[in-house]
Amino acid sequence: MITLDIVAPVVEESKDYVNGLDTLWVLLGAMLVFWMQPGFALVEAGLTQKKNTANILMKNFVDFMCGSVLYWILGFSIMYGAGNAFFGWEGFGFIGGDSNVPAECTFIFQTVFCATTATIVSGAMAERTKFSMYVLYSVLISAFIYPFEGHWSWGGGWLAELGFHDFAGSTVVHLCGGALALAGAIVLGPRIGKYDKNGKSRAIPGHNLALCALGVFCLWVGWFGFNPCSTVAATGYANAVSMSHVFVTTNMAAATGGIAALAYTWIVDGKPSLSMVCNGVLAGLVGITAGCDCVSIGASALIGIIVSVVMCFSVSFIDKVLKIDDPVGAVSVHGVGGLLGTILTGVFCDSAIDDVEATVGVQTLGAVVVAVFAFVAGMIIFNAIKYTHGLRCDKRIEEEGLDVYEHGESAYN
């Protein structure tokens, strides 16, 4: 008989070093990051066709449900358990020990970050993936891929030893998710009708930009947990200053990212695009996440502008030149945005703001290695599924919609 060695938390009556205010701060962050799940769901649903809305909403539930369980059983132990420079392990069900906050507080905060990584992949593979296979690779991402690369930076692994700085996950979460999304979109191929016989891209408009815009506002709010609460402490003057600074830099990058996308589309396309402004805001948020604690307010504004403009170019390049169909721009927003934001942290890092020494060389190395690891792992997983059970749904199901065929119901009756 196989038994699981589930490690239960040890409850003691009093531990003086556990701080109640810090605990409340981190748990508030967990709630706000969880709020990003409906944000992602609304953005993806709004930017795709209504015949697949129930499928998209279901996938976002699956990401969090499966991610919560698998990260508890395997993921957290691999990511934060004692081990070596490449992976940790302290048994099934390991959730760590108390610090300034209880072990379970740290665990739930990290769980919501894990679920975000899997959700990013969903958008690039929308409208043509078998639901059963989506569940499978979502499980693999939460249990293995994210924890392995996360250990390198946040679990005391080799990147952490080099001085790699990713405060809240431009690389660990977003670039990893974006690289996996790129692999998935390549293996799946474009949606039916996306390119004509000459290879020219055709727009497949999303069915509800109001949902998309509401989702971006949800994500913007959620990012105030994603970044500021990653201080994991709220007591004392230094922490008060740090979390306040992170709030401001996070918001500034989002604002300038949206403005940059508005200006870019107005100049290039002749009209300001709401969907691209939404992605510009998200690109700014992704870009600032690595260095929100150690760059100035002015630098955060520049990071938002730079990442957003490059994202706008990337969306067009991936679609029209590479012929890769990414319905929501996940690869450009999270992959390109995470890569560039991590490198720019090395450019703009100011050790006077936070005692951090981030160099361009180490930041670039860390980002590239994580991107390559996630992309290669994604290619292996998606191709293995494709040539065994099959990754893509049947043509008739794709044409008529996944809602009815995969779930027996529609989001719109």
Topology:
Layout: H1 20-34, H2 36-46, H3 53-80, H4 103-124, H5 131-154, H6 158-162, H7 170-188, H8 209-226, H9 237-269, H10 274-288, H11 297-321, H12 330-348, H13 360-386, H14 395-400, H15 402-407
**Rg, nearest Å:** 21 Å
Number of helices: 15
Strand proportion: under 5%
Enumerate the spans where pLDDT stays under 50 for 5 or more consecutive residues. Answer: 1-14
The proportion of residues forming helix, as a percent range, comes to 55-70%
Largest sheet: none
Average pLDDT works out at 94
What is the overall silhouette? globular
Instruction: Please write the string of helix (H) and strand (E) elements.
Output: HHHHHHHHHHHHHHH
Report the span from N to C terminus: 49 Å
* Beta strands, count: 0
Q: Indicate the structural class.
A: mainly alpha
Describe this structure in words.
Helix 2 runs parallel beside helix 4, helix 4 packs across helix 5 and helix 7 packs parallel to helix 13. The protein is an all-alpha fold and 413 residues long. It has 15 helices and no strands. The longest helix is centred in the middle third of the chain and has 33 residues. It is globular. The N terminus is likely disordered.
